[in-house]
Amino acid sequence: MTAWNIRPIASALWRNRTGALLVAVQIAIGLAVLVNAIYVVKQRVELIGRPTGMDTANMIWVASAGFAKDYDYEATWREDIAVLRGMPGVKAASLFSNIPLSGGGSSTGYQARPGEVSPKETIPGNKYDVDEAAIAALGVKLVAGRPFEASEILPPSETFEDAPQAIVTKTFAKKLFPGDENFLGKTFYNGLSEPTVIVGVMEHMQGAWVGWDDLENVVLFPRQKNGPTSIYLVRTEPGQRDAIMRDIEAKLGGSNPDRLLRWVRPFDYFIDQSYLRDRNMAIFLVSVTTALLAITALGIFGLATFNVSTRIRQIGTRRAVGARRMDIVRHFLVENWMVTTAGIVAGCGAALGIGYWISVEYELPRLDLYFLVGGVLAIWLIGLAAALQPARRASTISPAVASRTV
Amino acid sequence: MFGYYLELAFRNLKRNPGLTALMIGAIALGIAVCVMTLTMYRAMSGNPIWWKNDVLYAVTMDFWDPQEPYWDDYPDLPPEQLTYRDATAVYASAIPKRKVIMHKAVGIVSVDGQQAKPERTPTRVTTKDFFAMFDVPFQYGGTWTDAADSGPEPVIVLSRKLNEKLFGGANSVGRRIRWNDNEFRVIGVRDHWMPLPTFYDVNNGPLEDPEDAYIPFGWSVALELESAGNMNGWKPEDIKNYQQLLNSENTWIQMWVELPDEATRDRFQGFIDNYSQEQKQAGRYQRPLNNRLTRPDQWLEDNQVVGNDDRVLVGLAFAFLAVCLLNTVGLLLAKFLNHAPITGVRRALGASRKQIFLQHLVEVGVISSIGAMLGLALGGLLLLGIRALYTFDPTESAGTQAIAQVDVTSVITALALAFFATIAAGLYPAWRIGRIPPASYLKAQ
Q1: B137 versus B38: which is more confidently predicted?
Q2: Backbone conformation region of residue B285, classed left if phi is above 0, alpha if psi is from -120 to 50, else beta
Q3: Is 0.95 exceeded by the ipTM?
Q4: Measured between alpha carbons, how far is A387 from A398 in angstroms, rounded to an integer?
Q5: Domain spans of chain A?
Q6: Which strand (E) or helix (H) includes residue B335?
C-alpha cells in the first residue's frame, strides 16, 4: 500500500475543487506579499541602521535667531558658546552652519585639479562651516591629520566661499583622488579653482540628505557660520543629554531679548524625521502582511473544517474498515498540503513578478531568492498549523457513524 | 418577498455566529485597509487646484549647464525654479491674466507692547496675484496692489492661525506688527486654506502647511532676503554680495501664470521662447530651447509628489482586499452548502432557482453591508493611527491632520467597495447553490 494515498486524496480534492482553488489563490497572494514585504522591510531597516559616524545619542542641536535691528550676532554666539562649554556634563560645543541628516544643507562640486574639468571629474561635497571644536563635538574619528585650530577659523562669509583648509571624509577623498591612500596635504579645488588643502581625514560621517547617493561626501571648512541665525552642536557625557537640554533652555532662553531661542533638540529628532517615511512604511508593511497571513490561515482552517464536516460518514466508514487515526490525520494534512503547494507554485510566479516591479519602481537589486525559499517554508508551516486542529478532530470521529443513518 | 428573504438571512446568520463573524470581519478588514490607503493616497496625489487645472501654469526655463541636464534621470525637464533675473524679466509681460513670482523666507514676527514670545514665521515673499490666482480665501481684508509690490509698501497678510496667536482671532486689519524688526501693517488675514500638497512650491514637503505670513515681493531686494528653500546653481560664480546673487545663475524663484485660453497660452509661450533666444545671443541659454508651461496635474507628476511607497501601499491594500474577498467566497460557499438540505426542501416545495438565488444574494448583501459599515468605522480608527505615525511634531502638523480624515469620498469609496465586494463574493455561491438538483439533498447523506 502506498503510504500516502496521494491518488485518492487528489481525486477527492478534485471533486470539491472550488473551495480548494479559492484557498490556493489566497496562499499565492499571501506568499507573493510576504516575500516582497520582508524584502522591502529588510532594506528599510538596513537604511535606517546605517552607521552615521557620529555620537548621535549624546548630541544636542540648538538654534538661535537674532531679529532686532541692532542685534550683535558675533557677541551673542561667542557668549552662547562660552556658556555651553562651561556647563557641567558638556564634552564639547561648536558653532555649525547646518545639521547633518536633517534634510537641509549645502553642496557644491569639487575637483582634483584646477581649471575646467568634465562633469565626471566633479565630485559633489556636502559642506559645513564649523569651528575648532567640531571634531570633538561630532564624535567622529580622524584616521589622519588633526582637528582645526582656533587660529584657522575664518570670519563668516555671505558668499558661499570655501576655506584654505578642510577636513573631509575618507569616502570623499577617495572619490577625488582614486587610487591614493594618503590624502593629507593634498589640494582640491572648487568650481572657481580656489584651492583647499586637506588637513584631516574622517573615517566616516554622514551628510545632510539620507536619500542622497553621495551621503558620505562631507567637507568641513574652518569658518564661522554667517548670521543672524546661529546653530550650535553640543555633545554631552553619556546619559546626560536630556538634563542638559533643559539647562540650555533655561540658560539661553531669556539671556538676550534681541534674539529668539528657536529650539533645543536632540539629534534623534532630525534623524527620526528624515527616516519617518521609511519607518512608517516598515510598520505598515509588517502589520498588513501579518493580517493578511492571519486571514489566509483562517481560510485554510475554514476549508479543512468544511471538508471534515461534509465527510463525517466517509471518515467513519474508513475507520470502520481499518484506517487508523493517524491515517485520517494524514489524509487531511496531505490534502491540505496539496492545496498549499498548488498555491505556493502559483505564488512563486507572482512573488517574482511583483519583486521585479518593485525592483524597477525603487531601483533596487532584484529580489533575493533566499527570501522566496524562506517564504515558501513559512507558508508550508502556516498551512500545516492551520489544518492541524480540523484534521485531529476528524480522527476522533467514531467508526460507529458509518452504520448510523442521518 | 424581499422582507421574507431579509428575515431568512438574519435567521441564517444567527445559526452559525462564528462563521458569520468571520465573514463580516474579513470584509470589514479588507474594506478598512483599502479605505485607509486610498484616503491617504488621494490626499497625497490629489490635485488641490483641479478646478483651475486648465488655466494655471508653472513657468520653467532651461538655462542650465550646456554640458549636463538639470536632472540626470529626466533630461527633458528644466530646473523647477527660475533665476531672479529671468523671473523678473518674464514677469514684466502683460500677456498673462494673472502672474506671480515668489519665494519662501523665514521671519521673526513680534507685536510691540505684547508679552508673547516672538514667533518664527515661514513667510511667502510674493507678488500680489498669489491670492486671486490660487483662490486663497480671506477672513478679513484682502491683498495689496502692484504699487505695493514695487514700492515696496510695508503691508502683510497673516494666516488665520497666526492671527489667532497674535491677536486672539480679532479683525487685525490696520494693526502694526514687526517682521524681522521691520514695521508692517496688517492688510488682510487669509482664512483656513490647506492645499494638499502645497504644489506651488516644490521646496515644501508634500504635507507642509502653507506659509503663515505674506509680504510684497519687493521686500526681497529691500531686505536682501534669501530663499528659505533650495537654491541651485550650475555655474561656478564668485558671488560677493546680494546684487551679484540677483544677477547669478542660481535658481530660487517660483513662477506661475494664469492663461485663460489656448491663444493666450501660445502667445506667452512665444514670449518666453523669444526672451530665451535673446538671452542666448547674449551668451546664456546654451542648451536646446526648452521652456515649459506646465499645468498643475502634470507639475505634480513631474515633481513626483506621490512617492513609490504610496503606489506600493495601494497595491498592497488591494491584494489584501482580494484575499479577504476570496476568503469570504470560500466561507459563503461552505455555509450555503451546509444548508443545502434545507434549500433542497424549499426547491422541492416549489421555489424556483431564481428565488433561491435571490434569497442567498440578500443574505450576502446583509453580510457585506454590515461588513462595510464596520470597515468604514475601522478605517477611521486606522487613519487615527496613521495620523499618530505621521505626526512628527504636533505643533507643525495640519497637513497630517488633513490626510487622516474620513470624508464623503471615503464613505462613498467604502460603499462602492462593499457593493462590488457583494457582487464579487456573493454571486458565485448564490448561483451555485441554486443549481443543485433538489433530489440529491433530500436523500440521506
Answers
A1: B137
A2: left
A3: no
A4: 20
A5: 6-49+276-403, 56-274
A6: helix B308-338
